[in-house]
Amino acid sequence: xxxxxxxxxxxxxxxxxxxxxxxxxxxIMQKFRLDWNYHSNHLEGNSLTYGETKALxxxxxxxxxxxxxxxxxxxxxNEAIKWIEEVVKEERPLTExxxxxxxxxxxxEPYQVDALTPNGQPTKKxxxxxxxxxxPNNVVxxxxxxxxxxxxxxxxxxxxxxxxxxxxxxxxxxxHPLQLAALFHYRFIRIxxxxxxxGRTARILMNFILLQHRLPPVIIKTEDKLHYxxxxxxxxxxxxxxxxxxxxxxxxxxxxxxxxxxxxEPVEEFEDIEKxxxxxxxxxxxxxxxxxxxxxxxxxxKAEKEDLQKHLNEKEKQDEKIDDLAEKIGKIKxxxxxxxxxxxxxxxxxxxxIIETIKGMAVKKIxxxxxxxx
Length: 374
Prior knowledge:
two-stranded antiparallel ribbon
């Protein structure tokens, strides 16, 4: 697989830059941790935004109006990641007890969720932490078919077999770390051993295996959710290579980011700056103060403030052009509507069609002219 060669090449580059400066490595891992917390929870329906996640993880600030459960999920996930990072240093083996302990850290405390009885009636079900599932957790596919995971009775033996397979493959050392981590992720998901939290647990375990091999964590981004699920469905159909390729592409991105960070280059991505700007604009609106005042209040260094201000200025210019475009289109529509009102289109239906065509051409011309100016 070509992706394996790319991973090995980037890892070689990274190893040549090690050991990393402690502060530089801290910045890189904080970036990974924030992204990992936000995206992995958001994939499962958590409502906290990236900015709210950052405020909660870095400063303990809770988001007004957001469910307590969403905050608990995020802090529990962060604690689980930190625990994994420490455990990697201890070279602790991967066992069933390890996985159950991870699940306890992740979910923090038992809670109730909506469920269905065997005859389809709505009910409530308690989610127990660190314990294998007590009832079936099969899902209905888009075609209406039921996709079956392991039964509660099968789960203990299948988890035992999964860990035996993992130890055997690790000892043989024939699989690439990417293949080992991706396949473990899929096999775990195929069992779905817990009543809830299986996706988040699977991704943490996959990254634990990667970290053990001195590779960075894979971050499955929320906006890529459909591709992630599609790759899993292909694996369900027996096509495992597309899933490994998909995980590999995301690992390649993480490695590239870590190499850039190791060289002292910025690790922030463009979307990070967009999220920062959105958060700053919202804060300014809520507090009725200027962006400049907020930049001074936030804990940013001079270079970070200048970078944010630069992107803010660019965003404001773009917004002005969009407003100008909307105004021009509005005027065109007003003129056309006035023209339509002055003509009895019932007597001349062909004129209505011609005018609509002219309107479309005029709007298209304005849009094209505006795009050339962006």
